[in-house]
């Protein structure tokens, strides 16, 4: 807050439709699902008698990258949101399948 003015005063107004809101939330949840899948990778590796630190570190690094990518989602970009929903949901399924 500079000079007593909230940064939100500087944001442009955006009217969200119900569909845009649902799609954006679904994209966020898809990223969260992928982050969770990597949490499962970490937990599975840590449960091993001889856990490989390289696997754990790689999974944590991926989680951080996914969090940054989640921050880059723009609710007003329908194509980005649709692509994110597909990509991250598929990534979570792939990661979880690798644990089976």
Secondary-structure topology with pairs:
Elements: H1 18-46, H2 53-71, H3 78-99
Overview of this protein structure:
With 100 residues, the protein is mainly α. The chain has one domain. It has 3 helices and no strands. Helix 1 packs antiparallel against helix 2. It is elongated and about 55 Å long.
Instruction: Please state the CA-atom Rg, rounded to the nearest Å.
Output: 18 Å
Largest sheet: none
Mean pLDDT: 89
The N- and C-terminal alpha carbons lie at a distance of 49 Å
State the helix count. Answer: 3
Assembly category: single chain
Q: Helix amount, in percent? A: over 70%
Q: Structural class of the secondary structure composition?
A: mainly alpha
> How many domains, as an integer?
1
The number of strands is: 0
Low-confidence stretches: none
Strand content: under 5%
What is the N-to-C order of secondary-structure elements (H for helix, E for strand)? HHH
Overall 3D shape? elongated
């Amino acid at each position: 807050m500079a000079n007593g003015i909230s940064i939100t005063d500087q944001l442009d107004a955006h009217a969200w439709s119900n569909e845009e809101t649902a799609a954006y939330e679904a994209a966020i949840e898809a990223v969260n699902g992928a982050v969770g899948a990597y949490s499962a990778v970490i937990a599975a590796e840590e449960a091993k008698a001889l856990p490989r630190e390289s696997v754990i570190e790689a999974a944590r690094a991926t989680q951080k990258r996914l969090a940054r990518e989640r921050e880059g989602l723009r609710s007003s970009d329908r194509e980005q949101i649709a692509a994110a929903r597909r990509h991250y949901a598929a990534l979570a399924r792939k990661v979880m399948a690798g644990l089976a």
